[in-house]
Amino acid sequence: MSATMINEDFRTRAKAFLQTNGMPTSRDEEWRFTNLRKYFTDAVAPNSTSVELPAYYHNCEGNKIVLVNGVLDAERSQFDNTIEVTNTHPLLGSGIQEENYFTALNAANYTDALCISVKGENQPIHIFHIITKAEFVFPRILLSAKRSSSVVVNEFYTTSSTANVSAVIEVFLEENANVNWHAIQHDNGALNVVNHVEAQVARDARFQYVSLSQNSRFIRNTIQARLNGENAYASLNGFYQTDGESLVDNHVLIDHKVANCESHQLFKGLLDGEGTGVFNGKIMVHQDAQKTNAYQSSKAVLLSETATIHTKPQLEIFADDVKCSHGAAIGQMNKNEIFYFMARGIDEKKAAAILNYAYVVELYERVSDEKLKAYLIEKLKKESDIDF
Amino acid sequence: MLVIRNLNVAIGEKKILKDFSLTINAGEVHAIMGPNGTGKSTLASVLAGKAEYEVESGEVFFEGVNLLELTPDARALAGVFLAFQYPVEIPGVTTTNFMKAAVNAKRKHDGLEPLDAKSFLQLMNEKRQIVELDKSYLSRSINEGFSGGEKKRNEIFQMAMLNPKLAILDETDSGLDIDALRIVANGVNSLRTKENSFLVITHYQRLLNYIVPDFVHIMYDGKIVKTGDKSLALQMEEKGYDWVKEELAAN
């Protein structure tokens, strides 16, 4: 890793922002349904300093990057010289169009950024976040995908006990670049994470994002794709599962700035216990973005009387020749489907397990890394007691 | 095999089955005909164990076991099969996986090991040919995007896979074209044995040209009002249901 000076300008601006802006409250439109204080004011439990790497670290091939509390662990990271890894980058900070409290908090506090540049075809890059302390940690990641390059990035979180994370990920896709990003947010129930992902997508480039948010305590994903060049494509997808008092909030934005672009959003939730889900999906079509195709679909299934879902599709369209659609469905376990299974001799519990699995696996199947997909589906089957 | 005695069933305040009685012995095919809204499908649903019906009185014994005390899955495992009038579409679950779960649940109930992959495939191939169902349907989500005829063929395929003792066909023929009707009927006929019984619920006589019943019952206002052989069905078709109503009124 080559050490370069941290871009102090953008850090200074962030510090200034924090002087006048505090942690958002529910009066802030972007945080209406999500009470941050409930999750971030808990007494901080002492945290174990040794956290095992997840099993997939030992199973995967390609580039492995381990970030301990947001800082690169050179010893346990392995990457080939086709990717360039540095701790800062001239574009750092420039991928965030609108500063908010958490992007600023990250900018003011991160120690080292993980900046990756890729050219051509690449082996997958696996990023393992290991959190060993209870104080806020600030992973800062930048991916620069050069012209016509393609890469898969798989991100995993592992903690041993209470962990508070504010991550910022900037992705720059040059012309005709192809980035598939998978955020595997599976944990032991102690993770609080605010995750801001912003992709700048140039002409003919394709950005696909899949988040799988399960077994965590608090997750806020702000996923934004800005389509800056013609024929750009973005597909933002997520599955979220909440139980107990956990919360997953997905705020998704696709920003169609120019003509002839295409975007898709598919988010599905499974909410149990007193869990809460939030989906806010915005499609912004600027006046010049004619011939835009933009599609959004949000589904949520409530498994208990006490689970909650807030769904808010937002379409802001200023061009007149576009195809945009959105659909939002909230339902419960379908009794007729359960009965159909039982009428064939399958007991109620198994029927529910199979139906839940079928509902969830649609998002798992969007993972484009075949090896990771097979690994995750196998794990899901085991957890869901599915034997086919 | 099946004994129904004085069964009274309601949905909410509305009484649907009124002192309904019927006995089906092993190897018999019974047809129940009757006008719409007379309780035919309610009977099918109650026998399969659908939750929203309230059994007020009466009893149902299947091979000596009180069927009404069993959950729907236990009834299926005991050998009762319902071919649905409106089979549901289930996105994300293939017919193959669905049948694997069902066949293995049955085998577990019978104290058998799960079927290995090869034997299961063989079984599916053999049974799907009975209803001329193309292989591709089995790897698709259950009934998703299927035509009416394909859904009904899928029901009969499932019946063939599970080989029930008593099969209840709830208006399996309604809305089918003549080819689909022939395929469905052939499927049923090929599964007829001295041990298996069928309860064929239909609105039209046409099906009974293909599935020849031992008994035909006319159902009206929640109970059986007339019983005969297959000629009764022809008489019904010719004279219409009003004939039964008039005859009842006259008595």
Walk me through the structure.
The complex is a heterodimer of chains A (388) and B (251). Chain A has 388 residues and is an alpha/beta fold. Chain A has 2 domains: 8-332, no CATH class; 334-388, no CATH class. Chain A is built from 7 helices and 19 strands. In chain A, the strands form 2 sheets. Chain A has a 10-stranded mixed sheet, with helices on one face. Chain A is globular and about 65 Å long. Chain B has 251 residues and is of the alpha/beta class. Chain B has one domain (2-250): Rossmann fold (3-Layer(aba) Sandwich), CATH 3.40.50.300. Chain B contains 9 helices and 12 strands. In chain B, the strands form 3 sheets. A 6-stranded mixed sheet of chain B has the order 6-9-10-3-11-12, sandwiched between helices. In chain B, strands 2-1-4-5 form a 4-stranded antiparallel sheet, covered by helices on one side. In chain B, strand 4 (54-62) and strand 5 (65-66) form a beta hairpin. The longest helix of chain B is centred in the middle third of the chain and has 15 residues, at 95-109. Chain B is globular. Chains A and B meet through helix 5 and helix 6 of A and helix 2, strand 7 and helix 3 of B.
Number of domains of chain A: 2
Structural class of chain B: alpha/beta
N-to-C CA distance of chain B: 32 Å
Briefly note the CATH topology name of chain B: Rossmann fold
Mean pLDDT of chain B: 94
How confident is the prediction overall: mean pLDDT of chain A? 93
Which percent band covers the strand fraction of chain B?
25-35%
The percentage of residues in β strands of chain A lies in 35-45%
Which CATH class of chain B? Alpha Beta
The assigned structural class of chain A equals alpha/beta
Number of strands of chain B: 12
* Alpha carbon gap, first and last residue of chain A: 46 Å
* Strand arrangement in the largest pleated sheet of chain B: 6-9-10-3-11-12
Question: What assembly state would you assign to the polypeptide chains in this entry?
Answer: heterodimer
- In total, the number of domains of chain B comes to 1
Radius of gyration of chain A: 20 Å
Shape of chain A: globular
Level of helix content of chain B? 25-40%
Greatest chain-chain interface? A-B, 24 and 31 residues
CATH superfamily caption of chain B: P-loop containing nucleotide triphosphate hydrolases
Count all strands of chain A and give the number. 19
